[in-house]
Automatic annotation (TrEMBL):
It comes from the Bacteria. PROSITE patterns: PROKAR_LIPOPROTEIN. Residues 1-20 form the signal peptide. The keyword Signal applies. Keywords: Signal. This is G-D-S-L family lipolytic protein. It comes from Flagellimonas spongiicola.
Amino acid sequence: MKKFYALLLPLLGLIFVACEDDDPATNPDPDPTPSYTAGSANFSNYVAVGNSLTAGFSDNALFIAGQEASFPNMLASNFALVGGGAFNQPLMNDNLGGLTLQGNPISNNRLILLFTPDGPAPTVKDGAGSTEVSTKLSGSFNNMGVPGAKSYELLAPGYGSVAGVAMGTANPYFARFSSSETATVIGDAATQGATFFTSWIGSNDILLYATNGGSGVDQTGNLNPASYGRNDITDPMVFAGALDGILSTMTAGGADGAIANLPSVTDVPYFTTVPHNPVPLDQATADLLNGAYAAYNGGLLLAQSFNLITADEVAKRTISFAAGDTNAVVLLDEDLTDLTGVDPGLINMRQATAEDLLILPSSAFIGTLANPADPTSINGVAIPLADNWVLTPEEQLAIETALNAYNATIAALATQYDLALVDMNTKLAELNSTGFPQADGSVVTSTFATGGGFSLDGVHPAPRGYAIIANAFLEAINTKYGSNLPGVNPLDFTGLYID
């Protein structure tokens, strides 16, 4: 079946265009003696709070080059034009990105695009990561982005405990630079006395549910985050309380700031790259499969005759294959009527439709064998895909409902705390739908691997994508505070790390 390289082959010729150095002649420098003003804002001490998107996470890892291309670092370069001070980041030890704890690897290196005999495929970069979690960094840091953090975790004491990392209760990235074993992210951020701050937090409160195919629980109505699983959706009231605590702490000393809302998960290539119908079959194999599923399809009709399911559900669940390259995968769907009490063979399965979102890693799973000794046990064909591989429409609705509630809270608190509001939801939707034309005639889009907007993990931006994010922040800041900061040129940054 289709692997990553199969998805990428038609795009291979574009990769080098997206990553090549730009000709300075096509991107002339602006007026060499412009006059910039901070307006009413004071950028002398800028602190950024957030998660992996703030830290500069890219290609499924945090590494030096990615941190240097983080959007807060880009903002700081603009703020320096109007009195902004130094911007210190808790840099990793290398450009591999892998973490160790007591010498034992606990996270992978970053992804690179490996060119194999079968075609290009994202793979983990070789080498031993040299960033040891228990080796504490000294000093304070302006970039307080913590990969993996949920909103309420920024307020959690001990979230940067090395001992907690070993027990799975703390964050290894924050453990490297927390001020103590009992520190909170926001407490450490607040002690720096920021004159200006940015906040972009909340994506992980729904994203971990989404990237795991909706295999968590929607905790709406549960106000106790201590009872949540890692992949659960955070209750909107819990999110609202956490964000209010973050903003009240960061503004207590009179700091100005900007806060961004959250984008839709359907706008990132992790959910838009793998088609719902990637299965190629010849006529003989299609006939064989249809024969194998005949009993299941007949059982559905029998269940309908006893009024156990409707005709619409029978149509939704009926499985049929045909010769060709666009057969839909078979998947499990927990929202179908449970008929196993009547017939254990009538499990909750159906074929995918265009409304289902297959996650990016499913490309390398579909077509593999569930049992190597059984050549007919093909995942996604004879063996239905489990819940963690697909976001169904019902799961997407749960995400959208939470997202809308979170963004309403962000907008209300931006007004309450008199902050610039960055509409990242609209910005990234535009990146997905039309892209952003550049001065050299290229367009930065969300197309996986070649669009320049997103990295190889399909969730986190590539440097050019972070530049677009930085400019969205700067536009909102200029509007709110009367500054005229110039922004950054996405073409000054690579569209994809290729080694």
